[in-house]
Amino acid sequence: MRAYWTVILLSLMIHASMGTVDSASAPPKISVETPIYFSAADGSEMLLTPHVYSVQSRDPFLEVRPVGADRKETILLNATIGTHQESVGSTTAFLTTGDEENSYHLVLLKPEGTAYEAIGTTTSLRSRGTTTRLTPIRVQSLLQNLKSQTVPLNRPPLF
Q1: Would you give the end-to-end CA distance of the chain in angstroms?
Q2: Measured distance CA(19)–CA(59) in Å, rounded
Q3: Which residues are within 8 A (CB) of 20 and not within 5 positions of it... i.e. 6 or more apart?
Q4: What is the domain count for the chain?
Q5: Which residues have a Cβ under 8 Å from the Cβ of 76 and sit 6 or more positions away?
Q6: pTM, two decimal places
Q7: Is residue 9 assigned to a domain?
Q8: In this structure, is residue 141 part of a structural domain?
C-alpha cells in the first residue's frame, strides 16, 4: 500500500512540475549603456535610460521592458519589419551603433525569418532625412560577433 501512495505522490509531483514549466522561452535581453531616444508607438520620443531590457515583438512594434519591472512599464517602439536569412535557433536581439552619427539600431531576429528594427539616437533632435537600416552583411557580422561574445552588444564592431 505504501508503494502505491509513493507512486501516486511521485506522479502528482511530476505532473505539477511539468505544469509550472514555461513552454515559451524568455525574451532576449539587451543592455543600454547610454541614454537613447526612440520613436514610440504614439509618435512621441521615448528615452531608454541605461538599464537591461527584455525585447519582444508586438506587431508592428518592438516591446521593450526594463528587466524586473512590471507590465505597466512596457514601452512600444516604432519598428521596421522585414526579413532576414540568418540562422538563429531562438529569437535574438541586439543593440548596435549605426552609420549615422549618434544613431543606434535595436534589432530583433526571429527564427522563422522575421526581422524588426528600431532606430534611435542619443540626441532628442532627429534628422529629417531617412535613416539607413543595417545591411544584411552587417547583421550577419554582428551575429557572428554575438555568438563568439567578442564584441559587446551595444558597441560597433571593430572591422
Answers
A1: 70
A2: 29
A3: none
A4: 1
A5: 40, 41, 58, 61, 62, 63
A6: 0.70
A7: no
A8: yes
